[in-house]
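ok, trying the design again with the full structure, not the truncated one.
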């Protein structure tokens, strides 16, 4: 998901005739600051809506790529547009925004943790992540070391002390029933509120730095 903001340079530059190139510079500066403000507001909403076990990992999903728009996300005097995006490689937040379903990205089914061990922060322990289980085919079965087995839609582990431990349930699709995060609305409200002051500050900066 991407959110872009643009300005009509011909209309705005009527106010900046005496600044020349500095007027365009002021607009690009204001656009970038407004995009940064919008990015911060989206991150704040996420932090308020969820109990984040991996806070920085999730918040950095709302990002701005380096480079000039459209290849990057930053406005420049040659490209008066800026953008905030949700990292396409981490689709969990975009799924909430679209309010649809979650599907596997690189496998056939999603693994839903059931009794797989977690750390004190609630994050799935590395030794119990799917890639760490060492699952492989052996004699028509899917097995792993230390009593790990796959049967039907479940991955489990058997131990003498605890018996059968149900680690994961496998599903092709998981419906997402949570409310939408309204990224676009959140960004729009912030941008509308901050744009006038950002433009004023950028204009004042352009005047101070303009060549006499």
């Amino acid at each position: 998901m991407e959110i872009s903001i643009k300005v009509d340079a011909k209309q705005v530059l009527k106010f900046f005739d005496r600044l020349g190139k500095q007027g365009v510079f002021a607009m690009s500066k204001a656009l970038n600051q407004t995009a940064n403000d919008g990015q911060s507001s989206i991150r704040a909403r996420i932090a308020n809506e969820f109990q984040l076990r991996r806070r920085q990992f999730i918040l950095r999903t709302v990002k701005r790529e380096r480079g000039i728009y459209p290849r990057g996300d930053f406005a420049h005097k040659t490209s008066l547009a800026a953008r905030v995006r949700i990292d396409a490689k981490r689709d969990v937040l975009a799924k909430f925004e679209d309010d649809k379903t979650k599907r596997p990205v690189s496998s056939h089914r999603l693994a839903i943790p059931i009794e797989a061990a977690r750390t004190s922060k609630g994050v799935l322990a590395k030794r119990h992540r799917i890639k760490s289980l060492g699952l492989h085919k052996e004699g028509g079965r899917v097995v792993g070391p230390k009593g790990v087995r796959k049967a039907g839609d479940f991955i489990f582990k058997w131990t003498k002390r605890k018996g059968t431990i149900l680690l994961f349930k496998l599903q092709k699709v998981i419906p997402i029933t949570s409310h939408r995060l309204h990224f676009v609305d959140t960004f729009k409200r912030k941008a509308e509120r901050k744009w006038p002051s950002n433009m004023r500050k950028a204009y004042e900066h352009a005047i101070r730095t303009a060549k006499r």
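Keeping the full-length input from now on. The CA atoms of residues 69 and 75 lie 6 Å apart.
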